[in-house]
Design a protein that fits this description.
Rossmann fold, 2 domains, six-stranded parallel sheet, 14 helices
Amino acid sequence: MRIVIDARLIGDEYPGIGRATAGMLVGLAAERGSHDVVAVVDPQRRDARFAGIERRAPGVRWLPSRVPAGGLAGALALAHIAWRVGADLLHSPTLLAPIIVSPCPIITTHYDVIPRVFPESLARGRRLPLELATRLRLRQARRIQAVSHSAATGACALYGIDPARIDIIPLGIDARFQPPTAAAIAELRARLGLPARYALTLGTPRGHKRLAALAAAWPAGAPLALVRAGFGGALHAPGSAMRDLGAIADADLPALYGGASAFVCASRYEGFGLPPLEAMACGTPVIYAGHSSLAEVLGDAGWRHPADDIAALVAAAQQIGGDAALASGWRMRGLAHAARFTWRHTARAMLAGYARALDAGPRVG
């Protein structure tokens, strides 16, 4: 089986989809067997976060395309490459545009329904094009690989997708996310000027992440400081005690996670929830609001609180920060749970989904 995967969003601008696509390719490289995996990449895209992905995914063929993902030209370029290499399947893990024509069956990855549930998270000019692209992308795919049951339920409820066409395939965690050494934590703390004790939250400053509400609820002068990191610019939270790092290097994430006394996720909606899982893998206790996929993905390995109770999240973080035995219990739970999520496991499920797509026959409707 020859699979062409659109990897043109591996780069700095798309930290979520880029990380997921890179992880899929690393897993497929290890699990592909006799299958031929071809990744279409954009050599013009700035990529400081995933540089070296080719070395981490040996055996994958990398084909450059100077036509970027998105829009009609990007879709046609991808279809042409699939035709040129004789692909059996074309997998599009992006959200930007449907593939108008394809020489082979299409697989798509579905992450969430944030643009429908929280339209304010997008600029007005992007809402309608993305909505139309999502509708067509989901309808034209022979099979859909959803990252969680929550994401699949959203696709069925809001886009009328038959659940029989969906495979639930959780994402994985990069092997580098593991408890860091004390020296790595100390070096990062000194270089970034981090507080001696802090709780970490990670995410873009979009409304559904509720980072501003978390910052506003965090008590000034608390023993455990609040630190935020993430793409999308600085968070506007005037008067809060939060330290905002903005975007940091991907290589610094394990030490940033591991140096935190707790990781706090206040988000109202996630399609999956990689950052809290990565925090668990680095040995950090996780406290989260029980919305959408978070309860499904994190389960009892994280300290779950009522979905809209920001104050409870803050109190739990301070409690864990001051109770070593409590923190140790949540740490061990998280480490054991995170170990179940590997990109090799994801890749095995993807390959099984590909086989089902080829067995299913033509997509009608």
